[in-house]
Every structure is written in structure tokens, then in C-alpha cells.
Amino acid sequence: MSLDLTGVTLTYPDGDARLTALDQVSLTVPRGSLTAVVGPSGSGKSSLLAVAATLITPDAGTVVVDGTTTTGLGRGELTDLRRLKIGIVFQQPNLLPALTAVEQLQVMARIGGGSAAAARGRAMDLLDAVGLAPQARRRPHQLSGGQRQRVNIARALMNDPAVLLVDEPTSALDHERGAAVVDLLTRLTHQRATATVLVTHDRAQLAAVDQVAEVHDGRLSAVAR
Ligand code: ADP
Ligand code: MG
After folding, report:
1. What confidence score (pLDDT) does residue 223 get?
2. Residue nearest to ligand 1 atom 25, measured at CA
């Protein structure tokens, strides 16, 4: 199974006209592999993630998430699909200030149902997987920027998603910390068999990823490396 976008076109209203944010984009990301998407600001990278996340319905084209075609699904069905199959890491970690790291993850499980003890165990395992077990009881203001971003990533994995979508997680980090986050995402992708799309502007970090695609004016092309 995989994440599949086929012939996706997305436009936004722009005065009397429409702005084409995505132009006939096709992309397949198999589970267990990471595709990096690079491109200049305004080229359509976040729009691509929003369509893959089923947060925006494209004008044309299809999105298939781990075997489920999203075309024609209602709001409630899309919400369920996102909860069960899609982990999203936004640019800003938007952690809840009052909660500890482990609680940030447990909140996700409560949304999904299941026992509190099982959720805590899973949350601790994930914090361990991102190297933050010792910080489990810290609140966001007691964590560094890189640590907050790792909590954010662990939280997105809480419901064991088939698809992991990550938007510029390293933009606020220095090069070394950014590279560590990309390495972590690559490892988690292989371990947890997610179909991962990583939007980034830092090409220097991409040596180990499985596939690189470049967006320009809403058009996607594969990059030979
Ligand atoms: P990137 O993430 O690569 O910077 P975006 O996907 O955010 O690019 O934006 C692609 C294009 O779509 C840009 O020209 C941007 O101004 C436009 N755009 C993005 N979101 C909206 C929106 N909600 N309404 C109108 N135009 C938008
Ligand atoms: Mg963006």
C-alpha cells in the first residue's frame, strides 16, 4: 500500500481569476519509504501536503490513502480516515503549553479511543523512539526547539498512521539539528512502514532519503541524484 496522488490540480481564488497551486501532480510514495519535496517558497509544497492530508479537496485528480480513494467521501469519513491513517506534522509544533511531552501524545490516543494505560505505554515507546524518554515529563517551555519538533513527530505517530506528512520541520533549526530530524524521520519511516512525505527547503539534508521530488509553479518533477 502507499500514498498515491494522480493528476492532482488545485486552484485558489485570486481576484477575478484563479491561481493554480498544483498542476497535474502525480506522486506515489510506497509505505516504508520517504519522499522529500523541495521547491521555492510559494511553489505549492504546503498545498500538496494539504491535499494529501485530505484537508483540501483538489479541483481534479485523485488521492488514494493506503488503498482508500478519497474522492466522494464525506466530511465525517475524511475525519475518520485522517484519524486512522494519516499523521500530520505542521511547521509549528503547536504543543499544548500545560501538558508534558508524554501527555501531548496521550491526548491523541484519547481522540482515537482505547485504554489509558495502553496509550501511556505507547506514548512512552514513541518518546523513546525519538530519543526523548528522559524528557517525558517536561512541558514545552522546558524543551529545546529540536526537542519540541521531535515531540511533534512522535505525536503524529501515536495512532500508527500509514501516511506521515511533514511540512518543513527543520526550518527553525540549525543545519545540524535539522539533519538529525531528517535522519530520525527516515529511520521512523523504515521502522514503522509509513509512506512519508517531507517538505523541506534544505537540500543538503537529503542524502539518505528514498526519493526527491521538486515542485516549481505547482508542477512536480522527480530529481535524479
Ligand atoms: P509553499 O508551501 O511551497 O510555499 P503554498 O502551497 O503555500 O507554497 O502556496 C502555493 C501558492 O498558492 C502560492 O502562490 C500561495 O500564495 C497560494 N496559496 C496558498 N494557500 C492559499 C489560499 N488559502 N488562498 C489563496 N492562495 C493560496
Ligand atoms: Mg509551505
Report:
1. 76
2. 12
Per DSSP (E only), the strands in 2-85 are 2-14, 17-30, 33-38, 60-65, 68-69
Strands 33-38 and 211-216: parallel
CA of 47 to the centre of ligand 2 (A): 7
Task: Look at residue 196 and give its three-state secondary structure.
Answer: strand
Q: What is the pLDDT of residue 109?
A: 79
Q: Please check whether residue 195 is in contact with residue 29, taking contact to mean a CB–CB distance below 8 angstroms.
A: yes
pTM tops 0.70: yes
Classify domain 3-224 by CATH architecture. 3-Layer(aba) Sandwich (3.40)
Ligand 2 centroid from CA 137, angstroms: 31
Strands 60-65 and 211-216: unpaired
Which burial class, exposed, middle or buried, applies to 137 when counting CB atoms under 10 A from its CB (0-12, 13-18, 19+)? exposed
Residues with pLDDT less than 50, the chain: none
Q: State the distance from the centre of ligand 2 to the C-alpha of 41, rounded, in angstroms.
A: 7
Determine the angle formed by the axes of helices 145-156 and 101-112, rounding to 10 degrees: 20
- The pLDDT of residue 111 is 65
Domain extents in the chain: 3-224
